[in-house]
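Per reviewer request, we include the raw input and output of the structure prediction for the construct analysed in the revised manuscript.
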Amino acid sequence: MNSHLIEKALKIKLNQDQIEKFQKYYKHLVDFNTHTNLTRITDEKEVYIKHFLDSVLISNLVDFNEINTICDMGAGAGFPSVPLLIVFPHLKVTIVESQIKRVKFLNELQEILGITFEVVHERAEVYAKNNLNKFDCVTARALGELNLILEYGIPMLKVNGYFIAPKGSKYQEEIAHAQNALKVLQSEIVKISTFDLIEESGFRANILIKKRAHVSGYPREYARIVKKPL
């Protein structure tokens, strides 16, 4: 059973309900993917490693039992927030997703899994403007370069909240480009977890960033962000 991959990595024991939720998640993902492209990864073991396991491993950065609210920007098919919600059911999850096909998938997923999370059909920077200082944690798995997504995400954090950025092999380059954004947004990198996913499934660098103080005026309008990134 592929759920043991998650148990082994996190050193936890999933209950039967959690195991079944991951199974239903996989089935709905593959079924929906037959008519609407969500992922190129459809092999069951690959989905468990590259989507489910990859998502929950960000919980190794910080104690998720101490986090109550999390915003996932551009989650696509729900990664990393929905796997995290299955493992940590106390979380109050908000997913901000701009593509309506993905919103439809996520709303159906709630019904299938019998869990509740908020799905907002909106661009991340627009949502952020109206939801400042709101979340304990913000994450974005595949939304864009670090210096850009920091401007979306950091303003939504409470002071001392955490931004988690899962990145790949070019993470050092992205960090270098994000130094000014970190400075302007009064945030700092407090931990970086680098590792290879099992079965040669790819390199990961999970970056943990802490918000030290709130800075007014961010995020800026999208056109300004793109034209002149921090």
